């Protein structure tokens, strides 16, 4: 009887296992290629003074060392360059030749010498009116000036133009055309200065005109102009479900809008979360197990295309923001550094360093 029962159990197991396999097989995951942080310096994103590298390291060492000697990120975006000052090559108390005085070759080398890619962000919400003015005055020259700075420092450029009402899209097109005339799109990613990206809202319901234009014309997988977009943080840290809903909007587009917003390939954007808060230390900085970059990981690595692109999974994560993005709050300086959140996530996701060539479809 015992042998007969074992035989029956074996037969049942053989019958059940094939049926269970598809459900138990893990969805194919595409690990993040981009795992980066915006960096605001020690003066709420002004970058107005030259930094001593040793002093800078004392506040930012976690970015280059997650605790085992390996960096916590593979991208740092120095934020922000004022577009109007860049156009005019302004020299003033905080700016030299149109670039914040703190954005020096030494700071760039601090990261690039460890395999971390560096970009400069032009704009931010504070400089929205200056974007409008610079684009109205001479967008082509602005693009050429940005390309020259990228060449000189060996960095990429991020467009952060946060005009929600009537953005100058023709001017922005001229800026991009001028930049690309110096640094053509480079699918290999080998030329740091050829990396040109744009920021969009967390979802599709703000910065609609910029998002529509970028998705329609600049972020296509068949004729790419910009490398990718960053879906920025919303007004406050979202829940897991809210973050996923925002990012899904980009993937789906908004077909009911007039004119519609087309879908965006998952391989053409990152999602963003806060690591710095004015009120409290966030798990996204210190506790990966309880962080959004952990709880949203299954989605960001597996979200399927919905009308654009052919591969599943977003490009990765961006974190807002290192050091002191605000004059209030602790920022990410000791003792509230982010090895346990961002750094642990780099380990969990096997963050590639240096950043590899990005998926194109």
What do you see in this structure?
The chain has 361 residues and is of the alpha/beta class. The chain has a single domain (29-348), classed as TIM Barrel (Alpha-Beta Barrel), CATH 3.20.20. It has helices spanning 2-24, 53-64, 83-88, 105-112, 128-137, 139-153, 169-182, 208-218, 240-252, 283-286, 292-295, 297-302, 339-348, and strands spanning 34-39, 75-81, 95-96, 99-100, 117-123, 156-160, 196-200, 229-231, 269-274, 316-322. The strands form two sheets. Strands 1-2-5-6-7-8-9-10 form an eight-stranded parallel beta barrel, surrounded by five helices. Residues 1-25 form the signal peptide. InterPro entries: GH. This is GH18 domain-containing protein. Keywords: Signal.
> Class, according to the CATH hierarchy?
Alpha Beta
**Number of E-type strands:** 10
Which strand-content bin applies to the residues?
Answer: 5-15%
Average pLDDT number: 93
Strand order of the largest sheet: 1-2-5-6-7-8-9-10
CATH architecture: Alpha-Beta Barrel
Question: Major sheet: size, sense and barrel closure?
Answer: 8 strands, parallel, barrel
CATH topology: TIM Barrel
Signal peptide: 1-25
Keywords: Signal
Organism: Streptomyces beihaiensis
InterPro entries: GH (IPR017853)
């Amino acid at each position: 009887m015992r042998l007969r029962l074992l035989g029956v159990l074996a037969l049942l197991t053989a019958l059940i296992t094939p049926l269970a396999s598809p459900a138990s097989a893990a969805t194919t995951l595409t690990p993040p290629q981009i795992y980066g942080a915006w960096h605001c310096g020690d003066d709420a994103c002004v970058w107005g003074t030259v930094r001593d590298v040793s002093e800078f390291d004392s506040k930012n060492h976690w970015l280059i060392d997650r605790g085992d000697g390996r960096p916590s990120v593979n991208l740092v975006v120095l934020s922000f360059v004022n577009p109007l000052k860049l156009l005019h090559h302004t020299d003033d108390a905080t700016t030299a030749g149109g670039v914040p005085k703190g954005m020096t070759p030494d700071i760039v080398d601090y990261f690039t010498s460890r395999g971390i890619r560096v970009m400069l962000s032009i704009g931010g919400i504070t400089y929205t009116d200056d974007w409008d003015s610079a684009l109205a005055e001479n967008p082509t020259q602005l693009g050429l000036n940005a390309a020259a700075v990228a060449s000189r420092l060996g960095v990429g450029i991020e467009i952060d133009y946060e005009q929600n009402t009537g953005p100058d899209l023709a001017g922005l097109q001229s800026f991009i055309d001028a930049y690309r005339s110096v640094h053509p799109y480079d699918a290999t990613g080998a030329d740091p200065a050829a990396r040109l990206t744009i920021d969009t809202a967390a979802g599709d319901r703000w910065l609609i005109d910029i998002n529509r234009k970028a998705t329609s014309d600049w972020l296509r997988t068949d004729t790419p102009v910009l490398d990718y977009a960053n879906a920025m943080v919303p007004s406050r840290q979202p829940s897991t479900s809210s973050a996923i809903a925002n990012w899904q909007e980009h993937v789906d587009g908004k077909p009911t809008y007039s004119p519609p917003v087309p879908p965006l390939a998952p391989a053409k954007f990152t999602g963003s979360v806060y690591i710095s808060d004015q009120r409290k230390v966030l798990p996204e900085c210190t506790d990966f197990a309880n962080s959004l970059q952990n709880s949203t990981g299954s989605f960001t690595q597996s979200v399927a295309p919905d009308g654009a692109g052919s591969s599943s999974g977003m490009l990765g994560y961006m974190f807002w923001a290192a050091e002191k993005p605000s004059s209030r709050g602790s920022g990410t300086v000791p003792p509230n550094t982010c090895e346990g959140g961002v750094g642990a996530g780099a380990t969990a996701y096997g963050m590639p360093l240096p950043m590899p060539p990005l998926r194109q479809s």
